[in-house]
Amino acid sequence: MIKFSNVSVDYPYSEGLTDVNVEFKDKEFTLVLGPTGSGKSTLLRLIYMDIYPSSGRVDVQKWSSKKITARKIKKLRRNIGIVFQDFRLIENLSVFENVALPLIINGYSRKYIKRKVEAILDEIGLLDSIRQKAGTLSKGEEQRVAIARAVVKNPFVILADEPTGNLDPDSSITVFNLLRKINKLGTAVIMATHDYLLIKDAPNRKILMDNGKILKKQEIEKNA
Amino acid sequence: MRSFYILKQAIYNIWSARIPVIIAIITIGISLSVLVGISEIAYKVYSTVEDIRKEFEIDIFLKPETSSFQREIIERKLNNIHQIKSYKFISKEDAAQIFFEEFGENIFDILTDNPLPSSYKIKLYGEMTHVEIVDNVANRINKINGIDEIKYHNDLLTLMEKYFLIIMIIGGSIIFVLLLAMNIFIRNTIKLSVYSRRRQIFILQLLGSGKIFLKSPFIIEGLFEGLIGGLFAATILYFLHNIANETAIYLFNYNLKNVDYLWSISIAVGGIIGVFASSTSVNKFIRIFAKNDY
Ligand SMILES: Nc1ncnc2c1ncn2[C@@H]1O[C@H](COP(=O)(O)OP(=O)(O)OP(=O)(O)O)[C@@H](O)[C@H]1O
Ligand SMILES: [Mg+2]
User: Fold this and answer.
1) pTM of this prediction?
2) Topology of A2-223 in CATH?
């Protein structure tokens, strides 16, 4: 469970978020919508504690932005999968190593890592590319590898910031469906996007942001 | 798997920055050989000085008519001078014997009477062997009745005290500057490595990587540079020492002592500097470079 209580974020020249209150339940799939600069990335960065609220608090499972330490951020991030628009794979490492990284960091055995990574790559249809360098993949493939890296550690939530932003429509659909499939297996997903076409018929919970605020339900319907 | 990955990253780092790494190793090698060489010389000077101090003696010669009762008084007075560590009585007969051993000639063959006076050989405590203290002690001894003459070689002590400090200060400064230089060169390669890996470090942080995991490859890189630099320094020293030894044999027919321990000293010092320089700088470089702005 993730809970924002009266959260504001001040950036040097602008306001990132203004007095946001919102909850994300376990196993829930939430789409965060809104135009450029509306605060979607800011919302997600608060969850993996890349930034802190200027006022208010963010609670993520047992961790609170009020009393988090570097050591605890490390623990928190081991329980969160993060997917970015620009994939953030390490290009000179193989697909296997990229997906294995979270498990290597956590100190799992080679045997466990091999089994787990192969199973996930099989699941996303990239087992054949396991030895390839990540930099040689297509964009759609890179994003699937990034998602594999996010789920490999069995996180309770996956944060996806515009995961389809750099992808063609076909790959976008594949990636979106992959995230929904992962969600069906019990992992919460919070996905920020302004790809309205992609999600327009999705039955998932939608949150609309504008100018650093979350719009009320009625406003969403009015806008839709 | 963790250690395997860390090692792999370290090797990768070293290989990608091989030119600066080689430059650093050469710099470390040369600096370390000078450093260890100077330390070696400084140590030799120091131990020579200590030896001289340890062997420093004051000879006091007694007047010929000194009785054993007077000697007892003299000894009691010597006991009261607390700078004195020990003294040894040398009778006229002992003196003749020493003379015989040194010159191979028996004075009784030449003279009927033994002309050598009886004397005391006095040793001071090592830390008391300084020009002023020695003079002071000698003055006190001189006041004792029955003493004919005092002899000691203060000139060597004076010389030593004049130059010892200067030698140590110069040596120490050179060593300090060299340590600083090695530190800077190692830090520089670590800086380059962290900079070129900044994106990767940032990603690892997002994945929940701990400090040790992030830092280890760079510390291994520093250790590697230090150890190989140390090996290089040891090789330089080995050749220098051979040359010095041959010169010494040629000029003075004197064989310098074995210096195998210089190998382990160079490598150990190199390794320590490598780990020190990298581990104290890597945090800072990670903080500076691994940000969300690539
Ligand atoms: N690091 C930063 N420094 C200063 N201002 C920032 C920073 N990051 C974001 N902002 C500002 O905060 C506001 C919200 O930005 P945010 O990136 O959260 O929006 P977004 O909804 O993710 O936009 P996009 O769709 O373009 O990704 C914007 O006005 C932006 O200019
Ligand atoms: Mg954004």
Assistant:
1) 0.81
2) Rossmann fold (3.40.50)
